[in-house]
Amino acid sequence: MSLAPRAVLVHRTTEYEELVARHGTHGQAAFFLSSRGRDIEEVAERHRRTRRALAEVTAAIPLTWRQTRVERADLDRFLFAPEDVVVVVGQDGLVANAAKYLAGQPVVGIDTDPGRNPGVLVRHRPGDARRLLPAALSTATGADELTMVEAVADDTQRLLALNEIYLGAAGHQTARYRLGLDDDGGAVEAQASSGVLVGTGTGATGWIRSVWQERGGAADAGLRLPGPTEDRLVWFVREAWPSPATGTSLVAGELTAGGHLTLTVESERLIAFGDGIETDAVELTWGQRVRVSRAATALRLVG
Q: Less Cβ around it within 10 Å: N or C end of the chain?
């Protein structure tokens, strides 16, 4: 007998909840903020909007479905199932936080604070949930297959990300490594830099775009940022340092569907992390190799 669908509501602790947990009471949190020129009512109102959105989405879950909630900090310990419909209630970044733990489950992004969030990934309002949840199970429902990026180390450690993967030193200090293209059959260069970024079309709305703009945009060797569903990645070396032992000729490029970037560690310790979550990093040590490419997994984001 097949299991009933399960709605998994992904949310995060609000700023107001964090403040009250840190300072003990609403009054003490209000005093803390007022001493820094802020009004707690602004923070409390965003908290109330988030709670109302969660309540409205919960009420829209079909009665025959199972349901559960998972907080952002617990995502790495939560076991998603094939029959899940993942409902992200919050900010765009929360969708990226959840994406790396999924395997093709449909995702519905609910914006709790329209106008404050860009709404790139949380595209819907809480009132849309009643219509979207049953429709998410249908293969005919329009869903964007958003390209993801993965890094695989030679010791089988694997990292997935929706926006970008950063490879470099912890603390963003100087990283030393050898950078290679196309399984080292192409160009290889020893480098010292503040790290390498490899990003997707979704990531092209954030960190990747800022680096691209600093390089002059399309003027940087004609490099065009990909769209979210394109089977193409872009990569940038941050602040490559020229020296007798290190070069700066390989500092930007793209990876098509079958291409990958290879980094061989020449430092005592480097890390790789995705979507800005440095606490969930892959540890790399001297001589290790890590390959970065388009992931076979895509994020199914309900349009």
A: N
Q: Measured in whole angstroms, how far is the alpha carbon of residue 246 from the centre of its chain?
A: 31
β-pair partners for 41 = none
CB-side exposure of 33: number of CA atoms within 13 Å?
A: 20
Identify the helix (H) or strand (E) that includes residue 27. helix 26-34
Read off the tokens for 243: 């020296």
- Is the CA virtual torsion 107, 108, 113, 117 positive or negative? positive
Whether 237 and 251 have beta carbons less than 8 Å apart is answered as yes
Query: Residue 117 CB: number of other CB atoms within 10 A?
Result: 17
Backbone angles phi, psi at 209, to 5 degrees: -65, -40
Say how many C-beta atoms besides its own lie within 10 A of residue 138's C-beta.
Answer: 10
Contact predicate 43/15, CB 8 Å: yes
Q: Per-residue confidence of the chain (303 residues) as pLDDT tens digits?
A: 578 999 999 999 999 999 999 999 999 999 999 999 999 999 999 999 999 999 999 999 999 999 999 999 999 899 999 999 999 999 999 999 999 999 989 999 999 988 888 888 999 999 999 999 998 987 656 789 999 999 999 999 999 999 999 999 987 789 999 999 875 556 789 999 999 999 999 998 888 888 898 887 655 557 889 999 999 999 999 999 999 999 999 999 999 888 899 999 999 899 999 998 888 889 999 999 999 999 999 999 998
Backbone angles phi, psi at 231, to 5 degrees: -85, 55
What are the residues facing 289 on neighbouring strands? Answer: 264
Q: What is the pTM of this model?
A: 0.88
CA distances from 118 to 40, 111, 253 (A): 23, 9, 27
